Amino acid sequence: MTAIPLEHILILASILFLIGFVGVIVRKNALFILMSLEVMLNATGVAFIGAGSVWQQADGQVMFMLILTLAAAEVAVGLALLIRMKHQYRSLDIDVLSDLKGQ
Amino acid sequence: MSLNTWLLLTPQLLVALGVVCCLLLISWQRSQQIIAWFTLMVLLVTIVATVSLVGQPAVHVTELLYVDSFSLVAFLWVLLAGFAAVYMSKAYLHSHLEVHDEFYLLLLLTVLGAGVLVASDHFASLFLGFELLSISLVGLTGYFRHQRHAIEVSFKYLILSASASSFMLLGIAFLYSQTGSLSFVQMQAESADNMIAQIGFLLFIAGIGFKLSLVPFHFWTPDVYQGSPTPVTFVLATISKSAMFIALAKCFYVEGFQTLIALPSIHHALSALAIISMIVGNCLALGQNNIKRILAFSSIAHMGYLMIVLLVHQQQAILLARQAVLFYLFAYLIANIAIFGVLVLIERERNVGNNIELSHWKGMFWYSPIKALVLIVALLSLIGIPLTAGFIGKFYLIILAANNALWPLLIALIVGSGIALGYYLPMIFQLFKKEVVTMSHMTTWRIRLWISVIFLLSIGVGILPDMIITPLLNF
Predict the structure, then answer these.
(1) Which of A43, B287, B309, B370 is the most exposed place for a label (fewest CB within 10 A)?
(2) What's the number of domains chain B is made of?
(3) Residues on chain B touching A47 (C-beta within 8 angstroms)
(4) Interface test with A, best of B153, B177, B210, B423 (most A CBs within 10 A)
């Protein structure tokens, strides 16, 4: 079995990351924004595991564990906010949250 | 690990212990008074411990943390900010009926995150500190869920800090794939001349730039500042930014990163970031009416000024740069304590909620001169007028920029400070406008004590920097 070159892994991670980022920017629904954030975080996870396997170290995988933990914590907070938002505005459209504006 | 290693980690361990005890305390008895005093006590003990440790030889605590005097003093600033924040929250939370013990718990967690950040010497600990800080801040920004903007603010902060951390993580992953090490010190210099490593580095800076709200990444700042409860805005402005900046400085001054920064492309990118932050931050603040918004934009500009210290190269300059960072952050912290402290008081007196506008402190000099005086000193210190702490801080920056021939940055610093007069001075003028006010204002002895301490500190550090602060910064 031939090893997958590092560049390919990094390109895959970058593409996944971009998909997630575009999702965060373009989507109107708060739930989908949270999902896109997950895609971004997991893309970095792919990059870490790839890099770790190139260097034959466990560090990459350890970082992935930390990222998973973070993603769980962030989603927990995010979903709590989502419930409040649904409760208060009766909508998950992100545009209802644009009261604050400057002069 | 030897006993000495543990000893140097005491401040962080004390805060962590405080968090656990707070949780136990909440399950034992829910009382706002008890928990507020308990948090104050934890912070006070930690401050004493930190002060007594400054000057100890630097030690690696496992591979993850590196505790030296630089990070200890930085943590001291964070703790002082935390102390002030708890004090402000005591005044702020008083007016609400619920028992708010979680608020203090989240505040302590923020301080702990900042403590991990300032001591970090490894990307994993940097990341952990970063997240501990941001997630607890998301909780704090939206804490008063019945206030009008609570959900909007914390949602904005959550999304932006999550994207910031994923940018940072992707950058770290790219760097790691080229250097093979997540530790700062083991970064190899020869891998710097590599496309992927450079892209990774820029992504990393972008992620941190979100947190420091440097200009292309600053969009969340004014909204979140305006909509958060005032003590939380204070935490955002001081604890979060200083800790992030210190962590950034720690990794920039390592040899491997120095070769990366010396590359022309990276150097130009960083200078551009600093210059537009100074100019745009100051320009956007002009013509704003909401005080917290003005402070948000001014904090963008201040972080831009401070970026100067990251761009120095010679080993000798780095020593001075470290002092400069700590001094500047201290001056900034004192000024912010003064302004936000007074804002909390005004909010309580006038019952205006979160939206304090310039007109709310119109004529304050005539009915409450001490508060007005401390505000004036704080604003002058933010401008950088001589005899205030801010002047010495800016002086450090100018020396550094001149010694290292960073001319474009120096010009931007001066132009930016000029523009800044355009919004700081009107804020001071408002204090002197005549207005008939018929309302009560409280100045108890506690408030007076606080105000005079802050007042003396910001003037004293400006006149006699040698006596008060330099002993802490000689390492």
Answers:
(1) B287
(2) 1
(3) 170, 173-174, 177
(4) B177
pLDDT at residue B475 in the model: 64
Tell me if B40 sits within 8 A of B85, measured CB to CB.
Answer: no
Average pLDDT, chain A: 90
Domain count for chain A, please give it: 1
Distance CA B346, CA B164 (A): 34
**ipTM of the complex model:** 0.95
- Chain B residues with CB under 8 Å of A63 CB are 123-124, 127, 169, 172-173, 176, 182
Q: Which residues pair with B357 in a beta bridge?
A: B290
Amino acid letter for position B282: N
Q: Which of B156, B169, B287 sits opposite A103 (nearest CB)?
A: B287
Tell me which residue range forms the domain holding A85.
6-100
Cα–Cα distance measured from residue B309 to residue B329, given in angstroms and rounded to the nearest whole number: 12
How confident is the model at residue B362, as a pLDDT? Answer: 82
Distance CA B194, CA B189 (A): 11
Q: Which residues of A touch B200 (CB under 8 A)?
A: none
pTM above 0.90, yes or no: yes
Question: Best interface-test mutation with B: which of A7, A21, A70, A85 has the largest number of B CBs within 10 A?
Answer: A70
Whether the pLDDT of residue A1 is over 80: the answer is no
Q: Is residue B431 part of a domain?
A: yes
- Measure CB to CB from residue A54 to each of B145, B158, B177 and give the nearest one: B177
- Is B73 in contact with B118 (CB distance < 8 Å)? no
User: Which residue out of A31, A77, A87, A95 would a mutagenesis test of the B interface target, given it has the greatest number of B Cβ atoms within 10 Å?
Assistant: A77
- pLDDT at B352 exceeding the cut of 80: no
Top-confidence residue, B4 or B202 = B202
* pLDDT > 90: percent of chain B: 48
Give the contacts of B467 (CB within 8 A, at least 6 positions apart): B460
Beta-carbon separation of A48 and B176 below 8 A? yes
In a domain, A1, yes or no: no
B431 contacts B375 by C-beta, under 8 angstroms: yes
CB contact under 8 A, A98 and B152: yes
